[in-house]
Amino acid sequence: MVVKVEVFTSPSCPYCPMAIEVVNEVEKDMPGVMEIEKIDIMVDREKAIDYGLMAVPAIALNGVVRFVGAPSKEELAKAIEEEKGK
């Protein structure tokens, strides 16, 4: 099962590049498992509102926000493995 990973960011956010980097690193370790969409909340504000996001970075897995803030590589990999198993 492919896990849809949505990364919500903002250009002014100092932590967002770290979240994107973690997602990219996990993708390298788990090829073919993730479908990644990077969403700039300044461009696609509606999606952030739909998810009830109040802060970025945020990461949703299969339509459910799992992280607000940048997770560690290990935390993200574990969450993706859990989603794969559903």
From TrEMBL:
Named from the GO MF annotations, one term is: protein-disulfide reductase activity
Question: Where does the Thioredoxin domain lie?
Answer: 1-85
Annotated GO biological process: cell redox homeostasis
User: Origin, by domain of life?
Assistant: Archaea
**InterPro entries in alphabetical order:** GLR_AS, Thio_glut, Thioredoxin-like_fold, Thioredoxin-like_sf, Thioredoxin_domain
- Supply the alphabetized keyword list: Electron transport, Transport
UniProt cross-references to PROSITE patterns, sorted A to Z: GLUTAREDOXIN_1 (PS00195), GLUTAREDOXIN_2 (PS51354), THIOREDOXIN_2 (PS51352)
**Family to which this protein belongs:** Belongs to the glutaredoxin family.
According to UniProt, the name of this protein is MJ0307 family thioredoxin
**Organism expressing this protein natively:** Methanobacterium formicicum
From which lineage does this chain's organism come? Archaea, Methanobacteriati, Methanobacteriota, Methanomada group, Methanobacteria
